Amino acid sequence: MPHIIREVQAPYTVNLNDEAVGRETIILQRDGVPVAAVVPYAVYREWLALEATASPTPTAPLTPVSDDPEFERNRAAFQRLLPELLKDHRGQWVGIVNEQAVVFGSTANAVLEELAETFGDVRIYIQQVLEKPRVYRMISRRVVRSVSKDSQA
Length: 153
Fold this sequence. Notes:
alpha+beta, YefM-like fold, three-stranded mixed sheet, three-stranded antiparallel sheet, about 35% helix, about 20% strand
């Protein structure tokens, strides 16, 4: 359970010999509302590592994942459009073509099919509209087992 330090008129003094410092999270409050946290250094380091792998902010450049400039422009457009997309399309999938959100759907496959039908063979970017994208870590490209409905009978 974190320690809670309430606002006082005098500046805060932290006794570095206090057992809570470096072991527990300390929450600072102003008028009963949390305003800051003092966390153990190990927790801070973990947070820095997570932040480094998190999706980029609109001010931070994207690290290219492809050598295809058109794909990268569409991917960057998704990041620019994300705040607006979250308002009306949270959880849906979106297809980006020519840096524009053009198709929305409940699944990536539905969006892909509509994009192919409408635009043909063009560079596209498909992503689910979430504040933090889901990242799937794959340990192998090899398909171990594929089961179709016909083979289950």
